[in-house]
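Handoff note, outgoing to incoming analyst
You'll be picking up this chain. Sequence as last confirmed:
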Amino acid sequence: MARRNPYPVRVTAAALLLVLSAAVLHAGWNALTKRAGDPVVFLWWVGVLASAIYAPVALVILARHGFSAAAIPFVLGTIVLHALYFWSLGRAYAAGDYSLVYPVARGLGVALVPIAALMLWDERLSPLGILGVILVASGIFSLHWRPGAWTRAALLASGTGWALATGVLIASYSLLDKAGVARLHPFAYVWLMEMGSCALLTPVAFAKADLARREWRANRGTIAAAALMSPTGYLLVLFAFQFSKTGYVVAAREMSIVLSALIGSLWLKEGGLGRRLAGAVVVLAGVACVAMAR
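Most recent structure output, in case you need it:
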């Protein structure tokens, strides 16, 4: 007797609603970060507040489910990677446009995962996966194409270099977290990551104490909003995994790449809507191919 597939052939309405909500939240808190006075300090404040808000639930979950010693290396690793990620993302937004930085970081992060899996575990890319990686690279190139755009000085000045570094970090912590959440409840895992990465960034914030105080006074409302949006968006994705295949969820989640072009060009007044939207759609198509190929 054939074994029944626990997942539907297509993404369900419930999963789609959850994932699209997560995409809006993810694009939203990134846009709020771009509008901050100092994006790195802003993200530190977000980590402080998110750690406090979600602590009661996380502690209850840890008390109920316990903490496995096998999770320790993964928790420590993701803390370091996320601290570097938040710092790199903040530097990218300080130097570059949101509608350029976001698609590069998100698209590259997803595309690098199967390449890393090939190198580390000899997981072969399917033709669809190869097409996806090519589309992501093409979309990133088209978003940033102009004479001299890919020199070292231009990459750093535009934020593209930091966005590329952020994409590498996204791929790195994605590979690590896949194994980490198998050893610890996802909510507790995310809370420990948020709290630990915030602690590592504390010296950076203290070195800018006056700026940190000004950031809180000027943006405490948006800091609170981002602190709620960031972990909630991730939890919505975790719930969506219960309703549909991982590939479909990952692909739908990256609708935020298209949203970033719209938000950046229209709300943040960065201009270039047509070219940036076209580039973002190409990146999204590549991400979808990579996700469906898994």
